[in-house]
Amino acid sequence: MKTFLFASIAILIGLNLYAQDVKLPTPDRSGGKPLMEALNQRRSTRTFQEKELSLQQLSNLLWAANGFNRDDKRTAPTANNRQELELYVTTSKSLYFYDARNHLLKEVKKGDFRAETGTQDFVAIVPLNLIFVADMQKASGREYAYIGCGFVSQNIYLYAVSEGLGTVVRGSFDKERLHSLLELKPSQEVLLTQSVGYSR
Ligand SMILES: Cc1cc2nc3c(=O)[nH]c(=O)nc-3n(C[C@H](O)[C@H](O)[C@H](O)COP(=O)(O)O)c2cc1C
Known about the structure:
Elements: H1 2-18, E1 22-23, H2 35-41, H3 55-66, E2 85-90, E3 94-99, E4 104-110, E5 128-135, H4 142-163, E6 166-170, H5 175-181, E7 188-197
Antiparallel strand pairs: 1-4, 2-3, 2-5, 3-4, 5-7, 6-7
Helix pairs in contact: 2-4, 3-4
The structure holds flavin mononucleotide.
């Protein structure tokens, strides 16, 4: 009886701890548009529909952006392989941290924080805003962390084109506001944001 009770409590605690995390489906690493076509169509979009992305699209997008394509390395390069850059995601439901190693979304805060991710109106209705965060203690240098953002952003642009989605990378956001919203450490810095959704 005692063992059963302890096991039940452990399961309940476990469920409670992980209930808010979203396990992403295995990313589809094949197919997509031919590279030259994708490059030919790459562009920024600023008018979006409110239509949500599927969980599979979200999984593919995050993996393409900055996921692990080898045991210990990712789709985007970093100087000295410091891997200082991580992504946060806002949806209509929650704010998440993308745990690339385990390919899951860890809920940071429940609620719709999309409007806080930028100064342009569309950020409040676009299904997805990505927030690029670098840990400057890990980075080889500030400039290298910014360069790393470029690779991740272009991965997102190319995935979006390939999937028939629109995207725009954004430097217009309130750095301090996002730092506190994301509950970041002093060594972490928000460097860039990017919106993704269906173009209107
Ligand atoms: C570092 C960086 C910051 C940007 N910030 C914004 C922004 O805050 N808002 C926006 O609408 N577009 C932003 N853009 C997108 C550029 O305006 C866009 O790439 C440029 O006009 C060229 O258009 P294209 O991407 O369609 O080729 C940014 C682009 C870069 C590279």
